[in-house]
Amino acid sequence: MNKKIKALIKAEEHANLDSFSFRYGYYFLEDSMLDLFNCTEIKDKFIRDLDIKRAVSASFKLPNSSKALQGQFILMKNNNTIVTVIRGGSAFKAEEFLSETLRILREDGDITPDDNVQMFQSRIKSTAEVVKHLSEKIGTKKVKAAEAKAEKIIEKLAEALRKSNERADKALLVANEEKAKREKIEQELAQFKAEYTANQSIAYITDEEQPEPSDSEWNPGTYMLIKAYSDIDNRGRVFQKAVVRIELESENGERFTVKNNWARGHVERIKLANQLMGQRVIYSTWKSHIYSPKIWFKNIALADSQVTIDGQSFSLELEERMTNLAKDVVANLTHEEHTNYSEDFHYGDDPIGRANSAYMAKDYDEAIRLYLEINEPDSINAAADILFYQGKYEKCLKYKHQSAEAGFIGAFGGLAKAYREGWGAEVDYKKSSYWTLKGAEGGDVICMTLAGGGYAYGVFGFEKDEEKACYWLGMASCYGDQSSEGMLNGRGYGVECLEDGRIKIYKI
Questions:
Q1: Helix residue spans in 204-318 (DSSP H)
Q2: Dihedrals φ, ψ of 235, to 5°?
């Protein structure tokens, strides 16, 4: 990875008050940006919620020192807010228990961040040393109670992680099936394009065979090729000749048959014509003032990138087919396969706690009611997400709009997806690209990747634009998205992530 990351440390949250104060003897008095450098990705089985978080090992400098320190950071993917940090080389599982104990004691008013700084200065690091020190300071009973509470929380989180891993395994299985489908489609399309290109090339006639030494003219409009067959022209006469006949239907419903009567290229023309039956085509004629385009044709070709193979509609860019596959995958999954849940979780008696508890208990209708009752942009979006997985796409779209218009960035990507794939509304690539860019500009990494891909290939409402493609793929890459980095490298570019948050694209 080896990237630079600008991370946000929030003054009133756990990472600052507990983690930094205890492990580095320092805490921030206000929300601050922290420059992380020499960043490398961490893979640890005890790290949870990797769909919304990521773990990196990184170097950094505290404001009161020029010395480079090492740490292992858990960051939110969407905005790089620091969730927690432990010292380099420490085990996440053991440190998690210690962090949770310190957090509980602080929230109960038994210790302060200054107490953590004192422990740092006294070189108190291990759980045993902390227990001994705090037992002498505030009493063994309080420390043991905090430890017991922390242990229960850790157990519940571990169970959530187990179920999350089960969900991930299911998702991987679905992804592999999806990959196999894509590979089959790509193979079929590659075969079609190879055969079509070969037949099209061979079916072209050389100048020496033409009745007139002039080029042909492509006739205006597109047509459905209804039927193609070999026939004999001029029946009953002395002169008879084999012809290829194709029956065409114009966009206004008119049907007519045109022919080509050259012996050379007859077999190739009939192969090409048969391959294109049921497709939209264009066709050419020799100069129309000599040869009628309603009687004669010279060549035929595919009118656009849309083809039908064995009764299935494909796009040569795979856009339409991949969209349909994505719909099929989502529609066939159950709600639980999309979510991480634990039946025993209880999140408190405040409004958001009751809503979260209802959700985890799989009482989804009650969770929706409570989330909407809270009436905050993020809670409205949470209700919309549940409605989506219930198949209530129109209602989902309504609340996604409500959340997005209130400024919740997390709803932008959902709106982009809805209009891109037709969830609760007609497919509208213009609206999809609008919300994709809004999400990208708001810091949503997935939207950055989609914007970069859209500009790269000119799909989903984006015009092809190499500069914009590289910019958004580079931004997503600097936020740690490896797929974007791969796409960028595949186009022959690299990215340098600058300390001020800007990026520099360079040619490889």
A1: 266-275
A2: -60, 140
Tally of domains within the chain? 3
Say whether both 411 and 436 belong to one domain.
Answer: yes
Helices (H), 425-500: 429-441, 445-457, 466-478, 482-490
Domain identity same for 301 and 335:
no
Identify the CATH number of the domain in which residue 305 sits: 2.40.50
Do 237 and 356 fall within a single domain? no
Within this chain, do residues 460 and 327 fall inside the same structural domain, yes or no?
Answer: yes
Between CA 416 and CA 434 the distance in angstroms is 7
Q: Dig out the tokens for 220 from the structure.
A: 């205006």
Q: Are strands 300-302 and 306-309 parallel, antiparallel or unpaired?
A: unpaired
Rounded to two decimals, the pTM is 0.41
Domain range for 406: 319-507
CA 441, chain centre distance (Å): 16
Separation between Cα atoms, residue 75 and residue 55, nearest integer Å: 6
Whether 367 maps to a domain, the answer reads: yes
Are residue 355 and residue 490 in the same domain, yes or no? yes
Same domain, residue pair 365 and 439:
yes
pLDDT in tens, 261-315: 765 567 777 878 888 888 888 888 877 777 788 888 888 888 766 666 555 565 5
Burial of 404 (0-12, 13-18, 19+ CB in 10 A): buried
Among left, alpha and beta (phi > 0; psi -120 to 50; other), residue 253 is left
Among candidate residues 135, 252, 257, 268, the one with its CA nearest the CA of residue 199: 268
- Give tens-digit pLDDT for 464-497: 899 999 999 998 888 777 778 888 888 889 988 8
